[in-house]
Amino acid sequence: MNKITAYLASSLLAVSIFTACKQERKLPFYGERHAETVRDAAGVEKIDTVYQTIPDWSFLNQDSVVTTSKATDGKVYIADFFFTSCTTICPTMHRNLATVFSEFKLNPDVMFVSHTIDFKYDKPSVLKKYAQKLGVDGSKWLFLYGSKDSVYTLAEKNYLVAVGEDSTAKDGYIHQGYLVLIDKDRHIRGAYDGTKEEQVEQLKKDIPVLLAEYNK
Amino acid sequence: MSNGKDIYKAKCQNCHGENGEGLGQLAPPLTDSVFLKTNKNRLACFIKNGANESLMIHGKEYKEKMPAFPELADIDVAQVMVYITNSFGNKQGFVPYSQVSKHLQNCK
């Protein structure tokens, strides 16, 4: 009898340790941070950490509709920078991202935001055709067009993804292939190389971990 | 075949996929053996100079432009062509280098 109790107790312990570990996995915060003095609800002053935050933005989506950062309110989303005539890393990035999209297509808390860096050619109608040919329809995956300044600043200063024009590059632009995971407070919680399958698999595992933060 | 596979990985796989599956309607699959056979005299030119015409593959129309790969030497084109036409379920057999070279001289 004692043996059974001990066995039960130890397995219970094992289960609780296991679940504790599972709940404890939390995604890191990326980017710059600083301390700020804030007042809590009771009016007591305390020091809080302020993490790098994606600022408000406003672009045209693939349906030529003005779309702002409000579109991602209450959602976690994956952002990336690409262009439709890119023949190097973009096809692989979007082939991989499309598998993430189909896995989370039915989850209302997840969105996808792709910014084109080709401000000359990738007008909304071009983006629309590209999206359709990729097999994506609807507003869950936004393809956004904006001025060079606004998109490049957002990429480099806010999402920490390097982009640029380069006349020596095969397709005229260079950029990093990161898929950036953003939480509901617009903080950066992950960056995954969209050309590497194992990192994209990690992204698929991390999205539910991030969503779990909001279920407490 | 191994050289051809390396070239495929470096130049073709981004769009056409690891298993020649293509990418949506953006890049056609390389699994249409009938297309590959009917167009076998044009494949070398497609690989080196790209394509800018509508192609029917597996009964679907593909209209996106394929980029050129001028950096590929004739022998590279021959190797990657042999790899593609004998992978992904295709079994066209060997293509002599001299023949590929000839095709490349007569590209339109």
From TrEMBL, chain A:
Domain Thioredoxin: 48-212
GO molecular function: metal ion binding
InterPro entries referenced in this protein's UniProt entry, alphabetically: SCO1/SenC, Thioredoxin-like_sf, Thioredoxin_domain
Keyword field contains Disulfide bond: yes
UniProt: Cu cation binding residues: C86, C90, H175
SUPFAM superfamilies per UniProt: Thioredoxin-like
Tree of life domain: Bacteria
PROSITE patterns: PROKAR_LIPOPROTEIN (PS51257), THIOREDOXIN_2 (PS51352)
Disulfide-bonded cysteines: C86-C90
Swiss-Prot/TrEMBL keywords: Copper, Disulfide bond, Metal-binding
Protein family membership: Belongs to the SCO1/2 family.
Protein name in UniProt: SCO family protein
Organism: Pedobacter psychrodurus
